[in-house]
Design a protein that fits this description.
The structure is a homodimer of 151-residue chains.
Chain A (H helix, E strand, L loop, with lengths): L4 H16 L6 H8 L3 H13 L3 E4 L5 E4 L8 H8 L23 H16 L13 H7 L10
Antiparallel strand pairs in A: 1-2
Helix pairs in contact in A: 1-3, 2-3, 4-5
Amino acid sequence: MRITRYTDYSLRVLLFVALKDKQISTIGEIADAYGISKNHLRKVVHELSVKGYLMANRGKNGGMYLKGRPEDINIGVLVRDLEPDLEIVECFGDGQGCVLTPACDLKKAFHNALQAFFDCLEKYTLADLLPAENRPQMVRLLGMPSLFSPG
Amino acid sequence: MRITRYTDYSLRVLLFVALKDKQISTIGEIADAYGISKNHLRKVVHELSVKGYLMANRGKNGGMYLKGRPEDINIGVLVRDLEPDLEIVECFGDGQGCVLTPACDLKKAFHNALQAFFDCLEKYTLADLLPAENRPQMVRLLGMPSLFSPG
């Protein structure tokens, strides 16, 4: 049971971009910071832009920044929006997969469990994942020394 | 985000076997009832037997029945036991995947969400998924007419 790599990378991009705040971020620096491929990131950034999370410009002087405020991006809503497949069991689909579906309470059990999962994630916004006390270490880990230079 | 087919099939096998109660079940009839391959089921039944959920005998007159009582098989504990990968995000692993892991609260958010998911599944036992009012329909859907014949 895993979220997709696409959702994982999307979360990383949004954390990076939110940390840089008003400064523009590029695919190159995000790829370098996390050690992931630019090609994967291009797709991720494009879709985050289409979905309204990022303002992104292509081209040589292109880059991106967060479209809204980190406190307005709910992590539960975001993950629901990004995950392409939330049919945690086959019977969440059209029910053609399992002959037992019309009389089986397993579907209800998994439905409730998935709801509890998202209820929990919905307690967090992107801002909650970037608390002031973590920011200096996050910036250092991502190689953004200029942001929090003393003075 | 999905459970594996292996966990899915395991749940179906346990429901079938629990419905037949003291009557022995065979891989052939389970395969026929659900329309899934015997080869997949052999592996599933073998592992359920190794893990202590089933008593299974191989061979021409082989078959299986539930080792314990349906009310003692907790669905949350069962799914945790069966799922080979509960690293819902990469940072649940050895933390080598993402440079941000040491300072990132996303791991905590997903950890809490996964806990909420299993807390919910743990409210159900196998017996809860086989309530008396559903049994006649389940038996019919699985093609076990002899079990609940009138009189």
